[in-house]
Amino acid sequence: MKAHFLVAALLLLGPRSTPAAALRVVTTTEGLAALARELGGDRVEVTSLSRGIQDPHFVEANPTLAVQLRQADLLVDVGLELEIGWLPPLVNQSRNPDIQPGGRRRLIAASAVEVMELPSGPMDRSQGDLHPAGNPHFMSDPRRVGRVAAAIAARLCELDPTGKEIYRARLTSFEERLTAAETGWRAALAPFQGRRVVAHHNSLTYFLDWAGLRATGYLEPKPGVPPPPSHLAELVGTVKAEGVKAILVESYYDRRSADVVAGHSGARVVSIPGDVGGSKDERGALEPADWFSYMTTLVKLVTGALQ
Amino acid sequence: MVSLVLASLLAAAPAPASADAAAPAQGGASADEQKKLEEEIAKELGAPAGGAAAVPQPSSPAPAAGAAQAQTGGNPFARLLLLPDISAIGSAALAWNHLDVATLSPRGDPFAPAHTLEPIFQELEVGLQAVVDPYVRADIFLTFSPDGAGVEEAYITSLRLPASLQVRAGELYAPFGRINQQHGHVWDFVDRPLALARLLAVDGLRGPGLDVSWLAPTPWFAELHLAYQAVAPAFDTEDHPAGLARLLQFFDVGEAGALGVGFSAAHISEAGVNASRDVLGTDVFLKLRPPSSRSYLALQGEALLRQLNGFEAAGGPTGPEAPGTAWGGYAQAVYRDGPFFEYGARYERAPAPSGGPENRVSALASWLPSEFERLRLQVSYDRLPGGLDGLEALLHLEFIIGAHGAHPF
After folding, report:
1. CA distances for A122 relative to A119, A126, B44, B46, B58, angstroms
2. Quick one: DSSP state of residue A161?
3. Model pLDDT, residue B322
4. Residue A281: which CATH number?
5. Most buried of A88, A181, B42, B152, CB within 10 angstroms?
């Protein structure tokens, strides 16, 4: 009897200690990890190097992350220099030859999407801490996420041909759910087309473009540059003149500037998750749990503020 | 049949994101579509790194290369695309010292003659970094200072070695301790700790050689380095062959922290029968940073023990180097207060040239207007054996232009 119990316990523990996953996928962000989980299901074991509550520009290049990369069967990063400050040394330390840029186990998500805010003329850092390759914050745009999902699925098929049918079926299912969800989100956003909001950083460019909203201004005068009072004062004027109702700030940004502008203009500060797992609920658990609930939360918060 | 449909869906899905979510073109291209395509090509050409490039290939070429194929006459940015990352880092200081440190407390730059407020151009570092071929990358750092121009580091790093091995070869800083392998612009404090200048090398222990490292298959980060280099230790100006070993480990400390512990050893041959210099070192680094914050607390310390075997220290007992066995080290705490400010305190103990211990404490305040500029004020109190003491002050400016590769943690 005891022996049976032991065997049962071992069986229960077994899959956890030695995962049956065919591929170990490591992503740089929680959003990409959520997509990889949607597409890989049980066949993949997914880890994200950063947390959703972190500013993806400023993740610590803690060498213990290189240990995760060492055995990665696939590394998915956003690209466009979003992770330039911390990913390259980790990839180097990992000694995993196939996850180098251009390697067969490296997928740069940006290579699957049309990039916005490409600099069209000469640029230097007087314009702020720019991403010279274009805006990398495309994971809150369902159109582009659809393309990233397809690219991830294609790469999973390549690296694990045995699971091909599963990945393809999961992609189809993802695309169906995406279409259905997008219809719902668009319906919720429909009454607010063309409305203006203020954002902290140009991290919502793709989202606003997809949602039919417009950024009337940013708390940062230039990307990565902190707002001087003169800029905030100007912004208060714009917010009042254009009747802007919402100031959207990712949870990892200091919201003092946003509060100041809100206080003077009557707009509302809306703290939004920066990614999947980008905010904490009352019990301290991280949410939203997956990409669909992240988008639903985003749409709900934005439409709520625009009411 | 279903799988065929699925396959064609898959094939179609990651296609170039042309005209966002638009239906595929039916029949001949209209003038509108032609214009759209033109606009798209213009956009793609503006995107050197990633752009609107096409289907992710199995071993994707540089994304922009895909875009260039549509251009007659080739890609006008081809030369630019092959340029290495180029950066320049300038540093200058305004220094004031109470003591005549050049003779009483020998060290590396920057410092001023006693009782003189002296502006110092410290260094211009030019970095050239790129992948050489699919097998190695190269990192080159040239340095220009009032002492002249030189090669600070120039080495290749292997990218594809099996068995978790990595080799660096060329002119490089020796894998010994934490600060020795970092360039000055990575340090929190302005100057090199006295103990490192006196027991290791005044401008950092470095030289031509080979560093082989292995990442152990452990659940934590454990890296073992074995190096063979020609180095000029302490205040020596000549290179001597040296064998080095270093074990570096990193552990996660809860959600918010990382702890690094290192052990280093160097055996440096010296002129004379069986003459040698042995140095042992240990370093600890603890960084605590709440995940969603830009503020952090970093504690760091190193201790070094040096023994001279069978030869006199450079300059003899009155020279800049303490004879026999000597030890020293430092401990520092740095608090980064958001993106723009940093404060620190440091205690140091180093062997004074006369043999007794020299103690120094420093306070640091930094202002970082952006990621690319830093202004620091460092004030120190130095106490030498025999009761000699004095204050020192450094106002230090640093700036960086261009693309400089991220530094290891």
Report:
1. 8, 11, 16, 10, 33
2. G
3. 73
4. 3.40.50.1980
5. B152
CA-nearest residue to B66 within chain A is A111
- Using DSSP's 3-state secondary structure scheme, residue B219 falls into coil
Give B-chain residues touching A30 at CB under 8 angstroms: none
* A135-149, B61-75, B212-226, range with the lowest pLDDT: B61-75
Number of domains chain A contains: 2
B265-279 pLDDT per residue, tens: 999 998 878 889 999
The angle formed by the CA atoms of residues B339, B345 and B348, to the nearest 5 degrees, is 140
Distance from CA of B45 to the nearest CA of A (A): 9
Complex ipTM value: 0.88
Residue numbers in B near A58 (CB within 8 A): 294
Quick one: average pLDDT of A193-217?
95
Same-domain pairing of A197 and A171: no
Asked if B262 is an interface residue toward chain A (Cβ–Cβ < 8 A), one would say no
Helix (H) or strand (E) holding B39: helix B31-45
Q: Give yes or no for residue B394 having a pLDDT over 50.
A: yes
Task: For chain B, positions 351-370, list CB contacts with chain A under 8 A.
Answer: 370
Residue A241 to chain B, least CA–CA distance (Å): 32
Across chain B, what does the average pLDDT equal?
A: 85
Say if CB B88 and CB B403 are below 8 A apart.
Answer: no
Which residues in chain B touch residue A133, judged by CB atoms under 8 angstroms apart? 47-51
Among candidates A121, A125, A119, A73, which has minimal Cα distance to A94? A73
Nearest chain A residue to B39 by CA distance is A120
pTM for the predicted model, two decimal places: 0.85
- Which of A167, A183, A199 is the last residue before a domain boundary? A183
Instruction: Name residue B284's amino acid.
Output: V
* Same domain membership, residue B95 and residue B67: no
Number of domains in chain B: 2
Give the residue among B81, B167, B87 at the shortest CA–CA distance from B127.
B87
Residue B58 has pLDDT above 50, yes or no: no
- For the stretch A54-92, pLDDT in tens is 999 999 999 999 999 999 999 999 999 999 999 999 999
Domain of residue A58 covers: 12-113+126-183
Give domain status of residue A121, yes or no: no
Cβ of residue B315 closer than 8 Å to a chain A Cβ: no
The answer to whether residue B338 neighbours chain A at the CB level (below 8 Å) is yes
Largest CA distance in chain A: 77
A119 in any annotated domain: no
Name the residue facing A150 among B13, B60, B62 (closest C-beta): B13
Interval B44-68 mean pLDDT: 40
Most confident of B291-295, B396-400, B401-405: B396-400
| Same domain flag for A179 and A202 | no
Would you tell me which residues 43-72 of chain B have a C-beta closer than 8 angstroms to some C-beta of chain A? 43, 46-56, 58-63
* Cβ-nearest to A172 among B6, B52, B219: B6
Query: Is residue B10 domain-resident?
Result: no
Mutate to test the interface with A, among B2, B5, B9, B10 (most CBs of A within 10 A): B10
Given a contact cutoff of 8 angstroms between Cβ atoms, the answer to whether B210 and B236 are in contact is: no
Q: Is B23 on the interface with A (CB under 8 A)?
A: no
How far is it, in rounded angstroms, from Cα A97 to Cα A103?
7
Using CB atoms, pick whichever of B50, B340, B406 lies closest to residue A108: B50
Question: What pLDDT digit, counting tens, does each position of A112-163 carry?
Answer: 999 999 888 888 888 888 888 899 999 999 999 999 999 999 999 999 999 9
- What digits encode the pLDDT tens for the residues B5-19? 444 444 444 444 333
Chains A and B form CB pairs within 8 A to the count of 185
